[in-house]
Amino acid sequence: MSEAVDRVTRFSAALVDEASREGTRENRSARQQLEHWARVGRGVSTRSTAARRRVEAALSGSLPIGDLSPEESVVFDSEIDALIEERLVQVDHVETRTAKGFSSVAVDDHGRMVEYRPDGTTVVLSA
């Protein structure tokens, strides 16, 4: 019988905080909550049902979102949320917008709201 070995995995602080809050409500640790979410997500993602195919069709744009059932819409919204969160950590949106000549507002490493301008200047909007 092989023994399960834990592997070090990094998660965003926001996700761990959410898992901690939800885990408290469900009598789970943050780690247990993350594992629970992963198992549920894996189950949903691997299901090859008509409903899953409809969600995938809506995600690809070949089925109007309004044609989804309420349950399918929940899965669709969750898929979109996950895609947005994945892309937010992969792309520097402030840099991208600045290069296109647009200002951006974001929270800096000190928790302040800062406007980043195309000319390279910044303005702290809140302290």
From TrEMBL:
InterPro entries: ParD-like (IPR021831). It comes from the Bacteria. It holds the Pfam family ParD_like. This is ParD-like antitoxin of type II toxin-antitoxin system. It comes from Antrihabitans cavernicola.
